[in-house]
Write a structure and sequence with these properties.
Elements lengths: L26 H8 L5 E8 L2 H15 L10 E11 L7 E11 L2
Antiparallel strand pairs: 1-3, 2-3
């Protein structure tokens, strides 16, 4: 039986898996917030689950660290969250992400 003895002896043709999904560009939301300075808007709503909390944290980071379209050279974006009960009979909760644009001046 011919088994490889070192990693250099292995040849297997395959494409690497993508590292992660590309983050959705949210510049259109940032533009809408810029057009309505000083007003808070809910830009996302996720279930209060581990996955929902992860998605919420990623979105908060994008706003705070000027990624995914939230460049703020002409002012600042303020982001906050609220966890609220839904109107469903099961009493489940959702995390709402609020963002407000405050122009410089």
């Amino acid at each position: 039986m011919n088994t490889p003895t070192t990693a250099a002896e292995i040849i297997r043709w395959e494409e690497p898996k993508p590292l992660r999904m590309a983050a959705k560009d949210l510049a259109h939301i940032a533009d809408e917030l810029r057009a309505n300075p000083g007003k808070s808007a809910v830009i996302a709503e996720h279930p209060n689950t581990p996955e929902g909390r992860r998605l919420t944290a990623n979105l908060i980071s994008a706003v705070k660290f000027r990624r995914r379209g939230f460049m703020h050279s002409d002012g600042t974006f303020h982001v906050t969250t609220r966890t609220t009960r839904t109107e469903r009979a099961d009493g489940s909760k959702v995390i709402r992400v609020f963002v407000c644009f405050n122009p410089r001046g």
